[in-house]
Design brief:
Shape of chain B: extended
Oligomer: heterodimer
Strand order of the largest sheet of chain B: 1-2-3-4-5
Largest sheet of chain A: none
Order of helices and strands of chain B: HEHEHEEHHHE
Helix content of chain B: 40-55%
Number of helices of chain B: 6
Largest interface: A-B, 34 and 30 residues
Radius of gyration of chain B: 24 Å
Radius of gyration of chain A: 25 Å
Number of strands of chain B: 5
Distance between the termini of chain A: 88 Å
Helix content of chain A: over 70%
Strand content of chain B: 5-15%
Structural class of chain A: mainly alpha
Number of helices of chain A: 8
Order of helices and strands of chain A: HHHHHHHH
């Protein structure tokens, strides 16, 4: 009798212990951080799209004043079409090659736009054109939003990956979320190269 | 109980305890900080004049507009001058400051910041997500170029800040009593408020001081700028890097 009583008590005790352990481990952290990274990624895509949408207008305006800068303009148009036409695979966040490709395409567009804005310095008429000034400030604002969106994404992925790779989270994921994978993230150095710093 | 602490049970017990301990440590220690943040000034009111560019009457006046603007529209605009940007680009400093203070309504993100860094000679209008449609980058840029920078170039920071604030408020649909804004010449008599208003002010002051004691008013926040209870604080809005910057 005493024997079964202790056995039962021990069972209950262990179950409580286990439940407490799980609660302390926060078993929902992995899916929650996963959703955060997805939201942050959507914002990145959204801001890149916004930049791409500005390009046709910008190219047209610049071409009106500086037709001889054909090379620079063509480079921008080509970089844009390359960036927007890339089919993003659904697993892009876990796919190093696709992710790298995406990043390179966007960096190429950023670089082409930066060169365009340097070339523009030679055309005072264009620089004082209201339409151009407006586009330029929008482009500048969008580049800044891209930087912010990228940083937010980097931070969210860092949080997610850390959860997935450090001990309690790793065990939780191993048991409950075997499909969870470490995600790709931007490297900041490339961003520093790409961001056009326009002087006025 | 003796049996419970022996043999294989002991082993399992030890493993479980260890796991739980790790979990506990994990949840207490949390994750290490991911990114260094600049040190932000304290949000002491709607006008935070760390660089001391504004005289008290001007500060009071702007605070009054901003308070009135929030009452009318639930939106928040904050004017900030900083001693320096601690090596951060102003764009970077601006949105982080906005997030740290949570300017603007939560979820609607209707906040904006006019940030002036006299040491770096940079100014920025930082726009919360929810106001980006109205106070666009292009409009922000125009305000900086037309209303703020000319005065700043003359070294007249007060006038530039007053003009800029008034222009931003106008774009956001609030005109209030901002027309013809000029800095009062030193010594010029300030217009006295009409008598009923005066009585109200006195009653308000008595009520306020009677309830909270004379020294509760925080610096940088006048009786006018204060909400009926509590100090000024951000509503929890967020920022995504919208706006424009200028240099002089």
């Amino acid at each position: 009798m005493v024997h079964t009583f202790f056995r039962r008590a021990r069972q209950i005790f262990l179950m409580m212990f286990f439940a407490m352990g799980l609660a302390a481990c926060d078993i929902n952290a992995v899916p929650r951080y996963d959703e955060d990274t997805k939201a942050a990624w959507s914002e990145v895509l959204n801001q890149y799209q916004r930049r791409a949408d500005l390009v046709p207008n910008l190219v047209e305006t610049v071409a009106g004043f500086a037709r001889q800068e054909k090379e620079t303009l063509t480079a921008v148009v080509e970089a844009r079409s390359k960036a927007t036409q890339m089919q993003l695979p659904p697993d892009i966040l876990n796919n190093p090659e696709a992710f790298k490709q995406f990043q390179q395409n966007q960096a190429a567009l950023g670089g082409a736009l930066a060169r365009l804005l340097v070339v523009v310095e030679k055309y005072p008429d264009l620089k004082s054109n209201q339409n151009f000034l407006s586009l330029q400030s929008q482009l500048e604002g969008t580049e800044n939003r891209i930087t912010v969106a990228r940083r937010d994404y980097i931070l969210s992925v860092q949080k997610y990956n850390t959860e997935l790779r450090t001990i309690p989270g790793r065990w939780v994921a191993g048991v409950l979320y075997p499909e969870a994978e470490v995600k790709q993230t931007f490297d900041i150095t490339e961003q520093a190269k790409e961001a056009p710093r326009v002087k006025f | 109980m003796a049996r419970f602490i022996r043999g294989r049970d002991t082993y399992i017990w030890a493993i479980r305890s260890l796991a739980l301990l790790l979990c506990a440590i994990h949840s207490v220690a949390g994750h290490p900080g991911f990114a260094a943040e600049p040190k932000f000034p304290q949000l002491t009111g709607r006008v935070v004049d760390e660089a001391a560019l504004l005289s008290p009457p001007v500060r009071e006046r702007i605070t009054g507009w901003l308070a009135e603007f929030e009452r009318a529209s639930k939106r928040q605009l904050v004017v900030v001058t900083v001693k320096d940007l601690q090596g951060y680009p102003i764009e970077d400093f601006g949105y982080r400051l906005g997030r740290a203070w949570g300017i603007g309504e939560k979820d609607r993100n209707t906040g904006a910041i006019l940030l002036v860094a006299p040491k770096e000679r940079e100014v920025r209008i930082e726009i919360g997500y929810g106001l980006e449609g109205e106070l666009t980058d292009a409009i922000s840029r125009a305000i900086i170029e037309k209303d703020i920078l000319p005065a700043f170039k003359d070294g007249n920071y007060e006038q530039g800040i007053i003009n800029g604030t008034a222009a931003i408020l106008k774009v956001l649909g609030w005109e209030g009593d901002t027309p013809g804004v000029t800095v009062d010449a030193p010594g010029s008599a300030q217009e006295l408020p009409p008598i009923p208003l005066l009585i109200l002010i006195i009653l308000f002051v008595i009520f306020r001081f009677g309830r909270y004691g004379i020294f509760t008013g925080r610096r940088g926040r006048g009786v006018w700028g204060a909400r009926s209870r509590g100090g000024f604080s951000g509503g929890g809005g967020s920022f995504g890097g919208g706006g424009a910057s200028g240099r002089w």
